[in-house]
Inverse folding.
């Protein structure tokens, strides 16, 4: 059974621009995708393409104008009460900005313990043991539970956000640009951690990014998003060089090679060429 199924999702925003009046922007246009258990779908596209909007729709933070989001065989929009709470337990998120994703007044241990307290109602001792275990799983120490967010680096704080996300053993995690704000060395460490957790706990991921190198490393499948639509999809990431849509080709070409002699130039004809499926 599919873990996640997005079916013909559409979302439009209305912008008020002073004397110019209102303007409607289509963030999502009939978007459909699926994610199977234990697999990672990489969702790539430039800023403003609708990637994060889709992530928020899947999480239930935004309501669709049309279409459906099914998670573990249930329509999220129609789920209520205990059923919705159970779905939310199995669907977690890691945001790009780890600093704004946590309460600066809480210690790291309290941040990680929040979902445990909300769902498991464990004893204080058991919660403390579980938090220490989670901190060690993501590469920190049990002593870090007593520190506040401002005492951590960006990479360390992202590890805390990941520990919180896996605290309830979810089935799917939406990773919204989780390494975009980190330097290259820390990016590699966080990606390695995410890969380890995916294999260890059989996690499904929606990995949202504009970084094809990161997506290629962690993803099993790939979807390319442009102006609110999925313009191309690959079931296997190793086929990434088979991308044909002009926008996909532009994304591929924008990657910096390991050596300048390997760089490629995209001709104007390629950019302007219409795509015919």
């Amino acid at each position: 059974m599919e873990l996640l199924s997005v079916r013909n999702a559409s979302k439009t925003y209305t912008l008020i621009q002073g004397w110019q009046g209102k303007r409607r922007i289509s963030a999502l246009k009939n978007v459909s995708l699926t994610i199977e258990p234990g697999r990672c779908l990489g969702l790539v596209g430039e800023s403003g393409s609708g990637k994060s909007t889709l992530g928020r729709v899947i999480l239930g933070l935004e309501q669709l104008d049309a279409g459906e989001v099914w998670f573990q065989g249930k329509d999220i929009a129609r789920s209520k009460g205990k059923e919705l709470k159970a779905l939310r337990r199995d669907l977690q998120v890691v945001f790009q900005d780890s600093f704004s994703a946590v309460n600066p007044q809480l210690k790291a241990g309290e941040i990680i313990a929040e979902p445990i307290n909300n769902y498991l109602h464990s004893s204080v001792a058991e919660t403390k043991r579980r938090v220490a275990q989670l901190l060690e799983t993501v590469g920190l120490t049990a002593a870090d539970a007593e520190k506040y967010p401002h005492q951590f680096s960006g990479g360390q704080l992202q590890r805390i956000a990941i520990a919180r996300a896996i605290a309830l053993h979810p089935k799917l995690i939406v990773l919204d640009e989780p390494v975009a704000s980190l330097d290259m060395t820390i990016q590699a460490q966080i990606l390695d951690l995410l890969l380890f957790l995916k294999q260890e706990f059989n996690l499904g991921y929606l990995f949202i990014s504009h970084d094809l190198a990161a997506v290629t490393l962690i993803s099993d499948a790939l979807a390319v998003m442009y102006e609110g639509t999925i313009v191309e999809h690959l079931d296997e990431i190793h086929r990434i060089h088979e991308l044909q849509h002009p926008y996909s080709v532009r994304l591929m070409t924008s990657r910096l090679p390991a050596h300048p002699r390997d760089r490629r130039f995209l001709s104007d004809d390629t950019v302007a060429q219409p795509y015919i499926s």
